[in-house]
Amino acid sequence: MPLKILVGTQWGDEGKGRIVDLLSAQSDYVARFNGGDNAGHTVTVASKTFKLHLIPSGIIHSHTLGILGNGLVINPQSLLAEMDMLRNAGIEVNPQRLKISFAAHMITAGHVALDKAKETTLGNSKIGTTGRGIGPAYTDKANRSGLRLLDLLSPTHLPEKLQDHFRQVNQTLQRLYAAPQLPIPENVDRLLDFASQLAPYISDTGAFLEQALHSQKRVLAEGAQGVLLDIDHGSYPFVTSSNVAATGVFTGLGIGIQPVSAVIGATKAFQSRVGAGPFPTEVEGEMAELLRGTGANPWDEFGTTTGRPRRVGWLDGVLLRYASRINGLTELVLTKLDILSGLPAIQICTAYKDENGSQFEQAPMGVSDLQKFSPIYSTLPAWNEKLEEIHDWHRLPQAARDYVRFVEKIVNLPVAMVSVGPERSQIISVPRE
Ligand code: GDP
Ligand code: IMO
Ligand code: MG
Fold first, then answer.
1. What is the DSSP letter of 35?
2. Which of 335, 396, 428 has the most ligand 1 atoms within 8 A of CB, as the residue to mutate?
3. Is 33 left (phi over 0), alpha (psi -120 to 50) or beta?
4. Is 246 helix (H, G, I), strand (E, B) or coil?
5. What value does the CA radius of gyration of the chain take, rounded to a whole number of Å?
6. Distance separating alpha carbons of residues 369 and 362, to the nearest angstrom
7. Which pLDDT value is given to residue 155?
């Protein structure tokens, strides 16, 4: 069973990038199956930090091959900029190392403008998107009017398709949002230039992956966002526009249903959210500052893609049980355990109660309508020791080990590893109880 899946179990930014980097040491191919450059995945190796938005985090290892599946929406400009960033850092990027599905959809400057115009119009009801054009690009896909990467391979039809696209975008910008129009010739010329640069990378990655799995190549699917942002299963409408959950891997990579050896859920030791929407265990004030950090450290809770301060709160066991069910998780990796050092006490939500006092261990009707619940907490002792230098489970303070075991118990899943710092080596294997 050579296919492994790594997904986020919360609202994104769980530390997926660094776990993918770790798992990539044992993978041949690393494949993104959803989202676009709304993702921001951080990998730190020694003193070098990489922030990846599109290219799979596994690319940092020299032996891996990266795939961008058909489930993605790809902004060619962001992709080319990311390729340059990696090359400048000494990472090889070429069509033998990176393959892009012909059936992935394209994000243009038009989609970006529509995303921003819609958010502006929504005012206080805005979703708080990353402003990367994700929603409008997936809208065009579902509306059967999208531009696919395949279109970049057809120089005779491409200029006309792009002109039509920008004409439609301009109509919408003007009529729906009274927003300024985009200059069409410059935008078309720019995309024609990007097309010639990206053409060698575009192929039928689904067929390629199917063949690879058949010959026992080890494939790691790298999720973007977190399941609570899934278009079907997340806190709708405060979600992204793609299937984030592990079940999206097959559609998003264009491979048939097949056995999966592990579905690993990256989980932050607390909870964070960037953008609007419900957050039952959210904390504010001094405690929020302790969990978020002030921005002085690179790992503090400020968006990798947008720089926005993230909302923070205690780990929510009800939502984690939900994430386990929706994804079919087999294990967790708990990140940022080091951040809990020095807190006065640690709270963890084990159930919700509603205004009548009824208790719920599972969210009764999905995760959108959570305002009517308040969290029931267990309070666990904290620890003062710093964890960053610890490499062995048995050397962790007892209270830290108890916290990890408590998480296992409330979700009924093993925690396979905990991380105690962003660097590749700051990770500890957790023995099974
Ligand atoms: P992703 O989107 O899930 O890949 O996560 P991000 O990269 O957006 O955000 C996670 C942040 O936490 C990054 O700055 C990481 O470098 C950092 N990080 C990951 N694991 C740890 C950890 O165990 N401890 C600390 N202090 N930082 C971590
Ligand atoms: P990674 O992969 C955190 C959030 C946005 C917003 C909502 C919709 O780094 O975990 P979109 O631009 O997708 O239309 O925004 O989804 N969002 C993320 N939050 N991490 C991400 O990715 C996110 N990608 C989208 O903040 O609330
Ligand atoms: Mg991120």
1. B
2. 335
3. alpha
4. coil
5. 22
6. 13
7. 87
Would you identify the CATH topology of the domain 105-201? Adenylosuccinate Synthetase, subunit A; domain 2 (1.10.300)
Q: State pTM to two decimals.
A: 0.97
Can you tell me the distance from the alpha carbon of 4 to that of 265, in angstroms, rounded to the nearest whole number? 11
What's the pLDDT score for residue 1?
67
Q: Quickly count: other Cβ atoms within 10 Å of residue 84's Cβ.
A: 11
| C-alpha–C-alpha distance, residues 57 and 43, integer Å | 7
Element (H or E) spanning 272, and its range?
strand 271-273
Classify domain 3-89+206-429 at the CATH topology level.
Adenylosuccinate Synthetase; Chain A, domain 3 (3.90.170)
- Which residues of the chain have a pLDDT value below 70? 1
CB 217 within 8 A of CB 134: no
Domain boundaries, the chain: 3-89+206-429, 105-201
The whole-angstrom distance between residue 196's C-alpha and the CA centroid of its chain comes to 29
Ligand nearest to C-alpha 333? 1
Q: Which helix (H) or strand (E) holds 366?
A: strand 364-367
Hey, which of 336, 340, 390, 428 would you mutate to test ligand 1's pocket, going by the most ligand atoms within 8 Å of its Cβ?
Answer: 336
The whole-angstrom separation of Cα 397 and Cα 341 is 10
Asked whether 280 and 320 are in contact (CB, 8 A), the reply is no
Residue of 41, 53, 105, 165 marked catalytic: 41
